[in-house]
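Hi W., the aspartic acid complex you wanted:
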Amino acid sequence: MSELENSGYKEAAIEALKKAECDIGDIIKITSKGKNYEGILIPRSELGDGNVVIVKMKSGYNIGIRVTAEVEIEKVGKGTKPAFASPPLPKQNPSLPHVVIMSTGGTIASRVDYRTGAVRSAISASDLHGVVPELSDIAKVDTEIVFSLYSENITQKHWKELAETVAKRIESGVDGVVIAHGTDTMAYTSAALSFALQNLSVPVIVVGAQRSSDRPSSDAATNLIGAVKAAGEAPFAEVGLAMHESVSDIATIIHLGNKVRKCHTSRRDTFKSINGFPIAKVKDEQVIMLTNQYLRRDPSKRLILKPNFSEKVALIKFYPGLDPAVIDWYVEKGVRGILLEGSGLGHVSKFCFDSIKNATSKGILVALASQCIWGRVNMNVYDTGRDLLSFGVIPMDDMFPETALVKLMWALGQTDDTQEAIKLLKTNIAGEFSSRTLPQEKILEGGQKSGN
Ligand code: ASP
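Structure:
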């Protein structure tokens, strides 16, 4: 398949390159203003000027040439496509726990193509195993590619496919599952899996990396080793999310899949437990449990798979001056659920009241989580909250908006009946809300100063 389509070229440039039958990696000659430039055609940033063709010259420098009617492009040699030969797979030890690593894409499954300089989502779970041979000392590793996507492209359909794939593996008797995933929406996926995979018998650990696995500063190996260790040996049977505990490579922390959020754009310890504590950490090849409040690993448990998620759900963030017509627009679009990201203890402006009443009167499930992120909504304190409750708005306790949104999608994926969905929303399915408010200081630390 031509790599031109995803290479960042647009309009005149892509037309001219197609006409000359050039593909990424080919050696091309560009004639512009009487001068010839010869080199390798490389992909370009989608955010740059897509009409400027980028060529890597023999000298190693890249040059950009704007394509105009006068510019000629000729293919002078077929390039070798960027290829990655994965290292041979290490020997397996059959006496170790059996762990399957699934790849879904993202930075953890990316590498830099040093010839063209682009980061590609290009390595599979099996390549990851080859790149991190230590995994074979921890588990008997099986690998499977589920999809190869940056996580911003993952949707409810992918959650379903992933949950079904995990279920098959658990039913076939593996000791644990690891899912390599892009970090951007990794916490949405781990929350989704926590609702879709109930009564787990073994751990399911979602893991990512902030730097691709071939960079010296990569966090991929530490995170993957921690995730595989926990999947194979930890005593819990929950959906967890494994990432660096701190900026250094010392430990991997395992958060509960629906109580965790990406909090920093680039730090390796970007994930923090919110309104809850991490469940375990992996340090010096040991799994250290940080709590005794967890569901136990138990091979005799039968998995309950509930993988459907409604796509007809909207998230509306309240802000001063929000135009309530946004709510009306979603109602007209036929959504079945709206999650309001309210202010403080659970409020939106009274200017939105008519639109909210209209939505609930049409059987649309309107729920509310706080944009404060930490803490719990309490809609009984102010009259605004009480009014919203009287319109049928459902408070989402101490769930932060992303988990509340995924839960709303899941609840509406289980039933067509709004009242049934409300019952599901109010039921604690996978530890997504705590009945008891945890001590503030601990919560604000993300529970990570546990003294272990
Ligand atoms: N955008 C990437 C993704 O989420 C970033 C990452 O993997 O960390 O897939």
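Confidence is low (pLDDT under 50) at residues 447-452.

W.
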